[in-house]
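>> received
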Amino acid sequence: MHGAQMKLLLIEDNLGDARLVREMLKDAEGLAFEIQCAGSLLEALEALARGNFDVALTDLSLPDCQGLEVFNAIQAHAPDLPIVVLTGLDSESAALSAVKSGAQDYLVKGKLDGSSLARALRYAVVRQTKSAQHGDTESQKATIFGMLSSNGGAGTTTIACHFALELKRQTQQGVLLVNLDTSSAGAAFLLKANSPYSISDVASSLNRLDSRLWNGVVSSIEGIDFVLPPGALRFGDELNGERVRHVLRFVRPLYRWIVVDLGQLDALSMNLLPELRDLFVITGYELPALYQAGRVLKKVLELGMPQNLVHLLLNRAPKNKMVSTQDLEKALGFPVHAAFDDCSEELADAYSEGRFLDRGLSIHKQAAELVSRSLGESKQKDVPQRTWLRHLWFERA
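>> returned
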């Protein structure tokens, strides 16, 4: 709260009730309110991701969520935000349950006036602040690496798997690997992971998403957590980029590192760019792949991503290259961050022998070098979550 102004997120789908709250708070004595409205749970989560609010005032009956699940979802995504529940006479029991679960207060529609509403919101902020002063400090949130294919068959999933495994080995910290393939098993096949749930199931259950649900979805492989792509379970499951973004925001406090296999550049992967600390664009040496890599690099830069956070990785370098790395850099107008040797034959043998996760593989050794370099750069870039692309992205949306 800055001076005598309080920033309020009002979550209410009834335009008449929202207008009434605005009118009540407009004349609040001694305190000005900056109010942003959200008409659904998804709009509310998006607003929470974009702005720093002092307090939230929420109805428990929304188009996409009902009852206590509304409060639980908001609390899960903004655990430090004081929440006041706004309820009708017919849903006081749900409001009481919300208070027992951590809401600061509940108010009944039709029994409000401006002064009592403003006082309840002010006290909610004060109580939450005192509680935070006696609690633990905020945990560090995960750094997110994105792996993006210039075109199909670039080897991105293989690199993402070994990169995640090596992150765990080098840091001994929590690592999550997310694969977003909607048409195939992807990393689930390579890692031999098995679960009845995928990232699609999590994204469709934002209103129920908590640590207990999350723990029932992820698989543990070689010390890293992994969530199955939709294509590992069913064909045709589409992913909503906004919902996947909210999943990533929810799990960031649970890990130190997150590796996201984004697939190719499309509406889904572009939607997730604001969440990344670093983006690796992976391409082969074939002319069509290089041409597409140039287009991808141009697009992500147009979206506002700083060039120093975008890394071009050449995969499967032939032993007798006809074109030098310098010539490729000149042609693409972009520096090459790393070049991996062609390990196709070795990987084929490893697949057939069940040694895909063998740390002695050449691909893993090259991934280890990439991790070491990335960790060194992380110390220089380890700053709070950036707003560069988020700001530009929502201006264009």
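>> Confidence is low (pLDDT under 50) at residues 383-397.
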